[in-house]
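Researcher: Good morning. I'm working through a list of sequences from a screen, and I'd like to move beyond sequence-only analysis. For each chain I'm collecting a predicted structure so we can compare shapes side by side. This is the next one on the list. No need for commentary yet; just the structure.
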Amino acid sequence: MTIAVDVSAEGVRSPLSRMRAIDIATRTLRKEGINHAMVSIAFVSSRAIATLNKRHLGHRGPTDIISFGFNRPKPAAPVVGDIYIALDVARANARQHGCGVREEIARLIVHGVLHILGHEHPEGANRTRSIMWQRQEQLLAGIPGLLTR
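Model: Good morning. Structure tokens for this chain:
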């Protein structure tokens, strides 16, 4: 098996091309030592992610990303996961953090892939000091032509 990444954008327009999103997810999986995976990335509206957030996590309102990683029955089994990214929230994050929207979307793709691989981080201020966040930023820095800071 190989790495298969599918990207969809229903009712929203992404400034990051489908092929670039696939490349970022694939690079991240490979850098994490994964050679067998099936991952879907859906760019969605704030309303759609708010519905997912309430239904699956019990939280109100939109968030930037929700990831679902499916349990692997054995270590050799492929990684399977779904990543949902709210583009309007990503745009707001980019403005707040002073980076480009493409960079922020790429950051969320890397973040989502790390979550489906089982990585976790604390909420709140310690989030950006976590091992997962540091790995995310290291992986992001290795993607050519992306960082704007």
